[in-house]
Amino acid sequence: MTNFDRKTTILLHIQKYCVEIEENFNFFGTQIDTFKNNNIFRDSVSMKIFQIGELTKELSKNYKEYIEETENQIPWKNIIKMREMFAHHYGNMDLDIIFNTAIQDVPKLNQFIKKELGDII
């Protein structure tokens, strides 16, 4: 098995959560009403977004230069802010924002990571 550096490992874990979110939508569909009314669907997607935030926070601590270099492509600081909202205000999270993040932003993050890692994945 290949030994990846820590940054690559973090990016691979983020990508794994992106793929799992996509799998949730493939299983449950892409209707916001289903998302809002099905706690299993909603909590699964939300937890994965939270985990992406946790990993991004770790990335920003150890690879600040990388974060700054790629901030124009991925809004890392916003990902961390969303993580903070999940951690401290989960019960008050706006389901429309979570849904739109999962549908619109997570696929972009996944594509960015695929491009970043190239032949590794």
Tell me what you see in this structure.
The chain has helices spanning 6-28, 32-37, 39-62, 64-70, 76-89, 95-117. By secondary structure, the chain is mainly alpha-helical. The chain has one domain (6-120). The two termini are 13 Å apart. The mean pLDDT is 92.
Number of H/I helices: 6
Q: Biggest β-sheet, characterized? A: none
Residue windows where pLDDT falls under 50 for at least 5 positions: none
Order of helices and strands: HHHHHH
Radius of gyration (CA) equals 14 Å
Q: Rough shape?
A: globular
User: Percentage of helical residues?
Assistant: over 70%
Relative strand content: under 5%
- The structure class reads mainly alpha
Beginning-to-end CA distance, first to last residue: 13 Å
Counting structural domains, the number is 1
The pLDDT mean sits at 92
How many runs of DSSP E, i.e. beta strands?
0
Write a compact overview of the structure shown.
The chain has helices at 6-28, 32-37, 39-62, 64-70, 76-89, 95-117.
Question: Which key terms come to mind for this protein?
Answer:
globular; mainly alpha; 121 residues; single chain; 6 helices
What topology does this entry show?
Blueprint: H1 6-28, H2 32-37, H3 39-62, H4 64-70, H5 76-89, H6 95-117
Helix pairs in contact: 1-3, 1-6, 3-4, 3-5, 3-6
